[in-house]
Design brief:
Helix 1 (about 40-50) packs across helix 6 and helix 1 runs antiparallel to helix 7 (about 205-215). The strands form four sheets. A three-stranded antiparallel β-sheet has the order 4-5-6, covered by helices on one side. Strands 1-2 form a two-stranded antiparallel ribbon. It has a two-stranded antiparallel ribbon with strand order 3-9. It contains seven helices and nine strands; from the N terminus they run βββααββββααβαααβ. The protein is about 25% helix and about 20% strand. It has helices at about 40-50, 80-85, 130-135, 145-150, 165-170, 185-200, 205-215, and strands at about 15-20, 20-25, 30-35, 90-95, 100-105, 115-120, 125-130, 160, 225. By secondary structure, the chain is α+β, with helices and mostly antiparallel strands.
Length: about 240
């Protein structure tokens, strides 16, 4: 996957500030866990993540996570179009209400700038908040294909963003890349924590330290929840 927007098909995003960081809630999206004790739920979840070194990247391919943008929620729209519908404004469609032809990312969460989406010449990517190759090295290489397909298509782990910012991120984790828009970093890190906790992925010591450093600046930060089940329907197979 909140601007993480964790439901399968989500409506409008409402932005509000929490302790100096942006946090997001969506109409129809899963809720976020509230703060507990003296700190936020996101910090508590980050503390609970297992710390290990990275496993080798050997054997990783995108195909290990199934065909791109599989319709795992069975709504007859592929996952990419689901996220575009959820995250863009002024959306227009081609042939019904699945195939998004245009819209505006207003604003792009990574840069804070507005970005226009045009199908076929898009400046918008769908980012895996926890990159699939990062997931492979922090636990996913040991999963069955169904769980990997679920992660790759889970709205909790997906976000429409400016393409150039996304490509600058690559497969970086919190220790190596953060959004240029500093006001979005708390929400971004909380989303990564939520995905890693939901799927049982571990973090490196540097990654955990970086997560906690960011979340320390927003002590009430909530933890996004929801998204799709952690197993894809049996009809989906990895290559």
């Amino acid at each position: 996957m909140a601007r993480l927007r964790g439901g399968a098909v989500i409506a409008v995003v409402v932005v509000f500030a929490v302790a100096g960081c942006k946090d997001l809630q969506d109409k129809g999206s899963p809720g976020a866990q509230g703060a507990t004790g003296g700190g936020g739920a996101a910090m508590s979840a980050a503390d609970s993540l297992t710390v290990k070194g990275r496993a080798p990247k050997t054997g990783y391919t995108r195909e290990k996570f199934g065909s791109a943008w599989a319709d795992t929620d069975s709504n007859s729209c592929d996952t990419r179009d689901d996220i575009l519908k959820r995250d863009l404004k002024d959306v227009k469609f081609t042939d019904g209400d699945c195939k998004v032809s245009s819209g505006v990312l207003d604003p792009d969460p990574y840069s804070g700038k507005d970005v226009t989406y045009k199908r076929g010449r898009s400046l918008v990517d769908i980012d895996h908040l926890v990159a699939l190759s990062d997931a492979w090295q922090t636990g996913a290489k040991y999963w069955d294909g169904s769980k990997r397909i679920a992660l790759a298509n889970d709205p909790l782990n997906l976000l429409a963003v400016n393409a150039s910012a996304n490509r600058g991120k690559g497969d970086g984790d919190t220790a190596t890349w953060l959004p240029p828009d500093k006001g979005y970093r708390c929400t971004y890190v909380a989303a990564q924590v939520a995905v890693k906790k939901k799927y049982g992925l571990w973090v490196t010591s540097a990654e955990k330290a970086a997560m906690k450093k960011v979340l320390a600046s927003c002590p009430g930060q909530k933890l996004p929840t929801g998204g799709n089940p952690t197993k894809a329907p049996s009809r989906f197979k990895t290559r």
